[in-house]
Amino acid sequence: MADQVPNSAPDAQIAASSLVESEGGGASTRFAPHGRPVITGINRIGLWSLYIKEVRRFLKVQTQTIWAPAVTTLLFLVIFTVALGRGGREVLGVSFADFVAPGLIVMGMMQNGFANSSFSLLSGKIQGTIIDLLMPPLSEGELMTGIVAAAVTRALAVGCTVALAMALYPGVTLHVVQPWAIVWFGLMGSIMLALMGLLASIWAEKFDHNAAVTNFVIAPLSLLSGTFYVIDNLAPLFQAISRFNPFFYVISGFRYGFLGQSDIGQGTQPIVWAALGLAVLNLLLAALCYRLLKSGWKIKS
């Protein structure tokens, strides 16, 4: 018993932080010190996992999240073409059905992009499972990117479904004149509403709050954005108000991709300025989302 050497505290610390030998080739690695991140750069696996989780969430109920919005949008087309498209009425040199169809497509995309992202954090806060989003090693930017990307995916799925249904509807012809405008304004509109939905999800504390944003903000901005009319038919005051509505530029720019003309202005230059303006607006919304997620406002408190 006398020849035994007692273990000291420094020896225990050294043993706890000793090198870990691999069984294969004998290479050794040391545990990272406390406070130093193990994952550097972008957590691609975590980001992809979050994206797939969000996509699978709305695909499990695709009858409600994809097909139902397509049917609702198609009903809008049927009602308004029957009510306003009689007698060969033309708008911007095309039939009323051809005029209203692009606006309905992108309107359905935007509304469903908002619906998807506005549910992500809110459901976690209400059900008490938001820890499942906050605990994984994901930065605020990665969390925002995964949720917004899944919302845009749903918006694109709804847009393709609605476009296919309208292409098969008698009396509607979808001519692709400016493909870049269709892609750009479709993406900008979907990202814009996905970011707005994420902001609403951060702010809302119950589903009533989310429904209030949908009913009193999103729906009026969508319906009063020139989807069913050109703003030249409005009084000068309401024309000026419409030009402060970002939904107007999304819908008119998207329609420009199919018709080659819009009520934003004559020529291509106003369309390009509208495209750049939407990109700047999305950057500002993304910065606001990031700051709120970083602060933990109404999420971590």
UniProtKB/TrEMBL annotation:
The chain crosses the membrane at residues 66-84, 143-169, 181-204, 210-231, 271-293. It is found in: Cell inner membrane; Membrane. Keywords: Cell membrane, Membrane, Transmembrane, Transmembrane helix, Transport. InterPro entries: ABC-2_transport_permease, ABC2_TM, ABC2_TM_bact-type, ABC_2_transport. PROSITE patterns: ABC_TM2 (PS51012). It is a multi-pass membrane protein. Residues 60-296 form the ABC transmembrane type-2 domain. Its main location: membrane. Belongs to the ABC-2 integral membrane protein family. PANTHER family: INNER MEMBRANE TRANSPORT PERMEASE YADH-RELATED (PTHR43332), TRANSPORT PERMEASE PROTEIN (PTHR43332:SF1). This is Transport permease protein. The lineage of its organism: Bacteria, Pseudomonadati, Pseudomonadota, Alphaproteobacteria, Sphingomonadales.
